[in-house]
Amino acid sequence: MSDAFISETISITGHGGDEIEAYSARPVDPGREIGGVVVIHHMPGYDIQTKEITRRFAAEGYNAVMPNLYHRDAPGASPDDAAATARAKGGVPDDRLVGDVSGAVDYLKALPTANGKVGVIGYCSGGRQSFLSAVSLPLDAAVDCYGAFIVGEVPEGFPLKVGPIVDKAPQLSCPLLGLFGAEDKYPSPEHVAELEEALKAAGKTYEFHSYSGAGHSFFSVNRPAYNPEAATDGWEKILAFYGKYLAG
Amino acid sequence: MCTYITEKVAISGSAKGAPGWFTVTDGSVYFDHPVHAPEGHTLNIDFLAPEAGPSARVAVELTAESARALAKAIESVLEQVPPGLA
Fold first, then answer.
1. A124 and chain B: CB distance < 8 Å anywhere?
2. What is the distance between the alpha carbons of residues A29 and A25, in angstroms, rounded to a whole number?
3. Which A residues, 187 through 226, put their C-beta within 8 Å of a C-beta on chain B?
4. What's the complex ipTM?
5. I need a surface site. Which of A68, A116, A131, A198 has the fewest CB within 10 A?
6. pLDDT by residue (tens digit) across A23-33?
7. B17-72 tens-digit pLDDT
8. Judging by DSSP bridges, how do beta strands A34-40 and A114-123 pair with one another?
9. CATH homologous superfamily of A5-245
């Protein structure tokens, strides 16, 4: 057993059998079977900051993988150019997202060090996609970091081609950890309350934390919205949650 | 939040990006998270040549205040152009 980990660009089989790019980070010799985490990147894409998050999970003792959700839109392009292209198309279609996350889950479960348990985590648009994955696939834990439009319609005129999915709460396959900024507008505290009501009504296991003084994107270390108090506590909540539900 | 607020415009001209000069045919103007600017949201303009692929893009990310100043300057310059030139 050592604390060494490897991180590398790989190819996984995503939605429709497509081979897509992904970034994998995993302990080299964990000395035990370990859980896996699928990291769903935010709207600005498959960027260095989200790769850093993926490596953090490996350093914390998880096999982690982040699929490049924009691979098909702009194969080989730099992450910012790919994000601009995907953005212009209105974002990632829901069915394609689920297929790509499913492929990432299969990849993690096939690793020789896997204990068979897999969680998802997503940020911003990825927060909604984390919830979408957890109501669509058999998972062991899901984390939604300030995902907009799980509740509520996209305002008229926005080219984002997604709709609310809160009605799928009864299909949630695993415990859900939600981390939100109390100053956020999308999702607003009212949106978060509506999601919580839906989970409660469906009898689901969930844990929500809303941080006062924090707005949207408070985990983003390279943006002014970064909130060290919320982000530090959020990381502790995530690791405790995965420690509970992804343990072997 | 990811606003996705976008306006697309057909444009005619050239832009210089990483691969050098190229002919641009499309513009995207949107207010959303920047990639590089140290702001939560910025007014972003992409000058694009979609037929040449996603990398044929010149991007700028401006604060709302500077974007308004830029728009005003563009209008001001065009108003000063002698008749028949533009």
1. yes
2. 12
3. 215-217, 223-225
4. 0.75
5. A116
6. 999 999 999 99
7. 987 999 999 999 999 888 899 888 999 999 999 999 999 999 999 999 999 999 99
8. parallel
9. Alpha/Beta hydrolase fold, catalytic domain (3.40.50.1820)
